[in-house]
Design goal:
Immunoglobulin-like, 2 domains, 12 helices, about 30% helix, globular
């Protein structure tokens, strides 16, 4: 009994001693999170390669407005993107191209044009976000942009932090004034700065295809230009289309070949596509799984242009989650410069989208056999016309159609 009491007493003395020692230990200091870190924490981290699982859709100011950009234009365009039905059709980004910036301050921070953007970029981004849309800006990998404004060379980190603080969601990064610069260094440098900014920002590489970015840009940018600039002419559209023929293997979720922005509805002087040409242009860009960045004045576009840009069945081909780029199946020269082409794109549901393109100046009878698409010669799949928005029914063996000049027939084929 005494031994038990003694043991119990010793245990009690040890417990008391432990409590005294613990009381003498310094207490941890709990500091509140800084406002900057708290704000960053509110933006949920998104893996870099998941920022563009399908080709980005939006609007860019350059094709129609060039340097004539302003806060009023961007606010009105954001309003129009909602009221026109474009937002509902999937368009997200409102992007200001070149000429929004004028200088840098004493700390190297980029300075917007205070006359054209009186409220500042943060307030403008907030307005765009209030519409349920996302906000984008433009810069350049050189010391100067294509229009001679300050570029980001040497200022990548400060620019990325500034964009993040303003609420930028998309950066188009051009390639002017880059003599002696290595694209394989310049673009990853800005990529790293954007990733370190704490904000998910889609990175659009506008390197014009000069260094074959499709072979190395996956994981660097989310889209990479494969061509020089597009123009509002049939010749420009078809020239850029031809440059995409062998690039299909490089596109897929997280990284997309970019044959440049849309010219649908764009009018520059007396240049502009016809209604049929606009339809053909949009159809092929969707079949290519290209980014869909409208470039027209969507505040006052004609109903027929709106109908092209918001055709959800055609857009669904571009946005199909399988993420394959369409391929040219066949090209036939019918003489006198008339060429007809068959393009096809595999879809996640096992079907295919097919475009019959008539590049000639007169109506042309066209056909595609199901064998050309990898189906049995006697297959009888369901066919739907995506521009007429109607089912044609089951078609056995071969599909035929008369395609108007500079126009397309676009169908969805479901086995």
């Amino acid at each position: 009994m005494r031994r038990m009491i003694a043991v119990a007493g010793a245990a009690m003395m040890l417990a008391v001693a432990a409590m005294v020692v613990a009381a003498q230990q310094p207490k941890p200091i709990v500091r509140p999170a800084s406002p900057v870190n708290a704000e960053r924490a509110a933006v949920q981290p998104v893996p870099w390669m998941m920022l563009a699982p399908t080709p980005p859709m939006g609007w860019n100011s350059w094709n129609q407005f060039a340097c004539n950009v302003s806060e009023q234009l961007i606010r009105e365009t954001a309003d129009a993107m909602v009221s026109s039905g474009m937002k509902d059709a999937g368009y997200q980004y409102v992007v200001i191209d070149d000429c929004w910036q004028v200088s840098r301050d004493a700390n190297g921070v980029i300075v917007p044009d205070a006359e054209r953007f009186k409220s500042g970029m943060k307030a403008l981004a907030d307005y765009v976000h209030s519409k349920g849309l996302k906000f984008g800006l433009y810069s350049d990998a050189g010391a100067r942009t294509c229009q001679g404004r300050p570029g980001s060379s040497g200022y990548e980190d400060v620019d990325a932090r500034t964009y993040a603080a303003w609420g930028v969601d998309y950066l188009k990064y051009d390639w002017c004034n880059t003599d002696g610069v290595d694209a394989k260094i310049a673009y990853p440098t800005m990529r790293d700065a954007l990733k370190a900014s704490g904000r998910p920002i889609v990175f659009s590489m506008c390197e014009w295809g000069s260094h074959q970015p499709w072979t190395w840009a996956r994981g660097v940018g989310h889209l990479w230009r494969t061509t020089g600039d597009i123009g509002p002419t049939w010749q420009s559209f078809t020239r850029l289309l031809d440059q995409q023929v062998d690039l299909w293997k490089y596109a897929g979720p997280g990284g997309w070949n970019d044959p440049d922005m849309l010219e649908v509805g764009v009018k520059v002087g007396d240049r502009g596509l016809t209604l049929a040409e606009n339809r053909a242009h949009f159809s092929l860009w969707c079949l290519l799984a290209a980014p869909l960045m409208a470039g027209n004045d969507i505040r006052q576009m004609a109903p027929e242009i709106r109908d092209i840009l918001t055709n959800k069945e055609v857009i669904a081909i571009d946005q199909d989650p399988l993420g394959t780029q369409g391929r040219r199946v066949r090209q036939d020269n019918q003489g006198r410069g008339a060429t007809v082409e068959v393009w096809a794109k595999r879809l996640k549901d096992g079907g295919q989208a097919v475009v019959l393109l008539n590049r000639g100046n007169a109506d042309a009878p066209m056909a595609v056999s199901w064998q050309e698409l990898g189906l049995r010669y006697d297959a009888e799949p369901m066919v739907r016309d995506l521009w007429a928005k109607k089912d044609i029914g089951r078609v056995k063996g071969t599909f035929t159609a008369t395609v108007p000049a500079h126009d397309v027939v676009m169908i969805r084929v479901t086995p």
